Amino acid sequence: MNQLIKSMCTVSGSGEVGSSRATSGWRSLLLPQLNRQSLYVYGSEVAVEQECIRQLQSGVLVIHPFSLLRSYYIMCMMAITFLNLIGIPMEIAFLDGVNGLGWEGFNVFSDTLFLIDVAVNFRMGIIPEDSEVAILDVKQIRVSYLRSWFLLDVIAAFPIGYILFFADLQYHSQDNPSKTNKMMRILMFLRILSLIRLVRVSRLVRFFNEVEKVSNANLEVVRLFFRILSLFMMIFLLCHWNGCIQYFVPMLEEFPSDCWVRKENLMNATVSVKYSWGVFRALSQMIALSYDYVEMWIVMVSMVSGCMMYTVLVANATTMIANTDPTAKEYKSKMCRLEHYMGFMKLPPELQLRISSYYQARYGGKWFDENDIMDTVSTALKEQILLAMCSRLLQRVPMFQELDRNFMNAVLVKLRYDVFQEGDVIFRPNTPGERMFLIDHGQVSVEADSLERELCDGDYFGEACMLTKGRYVATARALTDCQCFSLSWLDFQQALECFPAVRKHLEKLPPLPGEEPGACSF
């Protein structure tokens, strides 16, 4: 089964897409990719494969949030949106109604693309903030989109480009001077109305957030880079729009004699020269170096927006640097002390590498004291945390099914989080069966004299020792880095002391498969 799913999913971190006979190449673009990001979110290769199965079994055409197609789509839309936010103000302020066929074609293409984007969002999977399970149900996606960004996206996608294109054709086909003047006023109104397309700036912000999500979230440097890049892009757009407004306002007034355009003799200058002067004036006013009182309100708005821009820049940069992933900083500090310790103790290089690999597998580059966190929260919150993390694992164990809920909560708080590296022996034959294990993420091989099994996410082993406290009859070995929850026999017995009815129920259960007197099955 694993080989079949691997043929349908991506099998390399470089983003190459493979497909099986049952799955065409274009369909595999919709599936989650097996890369560092998906492994970070889902925990293991097996979990990513199961996510592929879940999407294939749904039978609907939904783009997974971690698919290759979504990554390319976001990058493309981000570039088109940024070009729109640059070009629309320049078109309105400097082109004087002479757009040219190329620019009008780009406007029509952009409007078409944003209309398609509205439709695509109804088939775009969602990763909720409080869950790692992607929403792939079309109805849930539709409801979520309609309640959030649908209205704003429809406004931003309003096809002004189509209207301007046909109005321009009508304008050039008119021979009657009165009708020509009327069409000119209509065109001016439409160009001002096209400012509504600047609402697309919200799409740019959302695209940056989505790029940050689908990037490698385990690398805080990547997230910080995208945050700083988005901040500087917003500042650039603010300066660009301000520069266009500098020329647009005198143009609306038909260039009065005391406006800066006439003073600088820019009436017949090229677009690049006009734009350069407009941006220069905007930046000068935003840092209060020079200004005049002819366009007093523009100057005041520029000065206020400039002060706000630099305040936001400094505040955001300071905050981002100060608050950049404190858990990652603590992890680096701990790893630095660990390296000094291993060097001082002169441990073999192979052992040092294995210890470092264990810390990476155990903490994932983030340091936190789990016991301290659990000790500081209330008992009710502790139960809810463990319930969210482990309840699905316990419910898969037959002997724990349909038991008293209070007893299950008592067992949950006894669970211990363990991490085993690839090749680690979890237990050996004839050793005391003191613990059972629930696999959260990873693969484990259990080998006995008569059989061999591979276990993966959601499986369990060593459960018979909870009733017999016998000895293990098999060898359990981690095939990959494995994250497990374990329950000891002693903790299980302590939980049973308060629930005699549950103890009687468990004693009446038939022997577990492979269970023998004095032996513990896996």
TrEMBL record:
Residue ranges constituting the Cyclic nucleotide-binding domain according to the UniProt record: 399-496
Domain of life, per lineage: Eukaryota
PROSITE patterns: CNMP_BINDING_3
SMART domains registered for this protein in UniProt: cNMP
Membrane topology: Multi-pass membrane protein
An annotated GO BP: sodium ion transmembrane transport
GO MF terms, alphabetically ordered: voltage-gated potassium channel activity
Pfam families linked: cNMP_binding, Ion_trans, Ion_trans_N
Localization per Swiss-Prot or TrEMBL: Cell membrane
Transmembrane segments: 72-94, 106-124, 145-166, 186-203, 224-248, 296-315
Major subcellular location class: membrane
Key words, A-Z: Cell membrane, Ion channel, Ion transport, Membrane, Potassium, Potassium channel, Potassium transport, Transmembrane, Transmembrane helix, Transport
GO-annotated cellular components: axon; dendrite; HCN channel complex
Protein name: Cyclic nucleotide-binding domain-containing protein
Organism: Muraenolepis orangiensis (Patagonian moray cod)
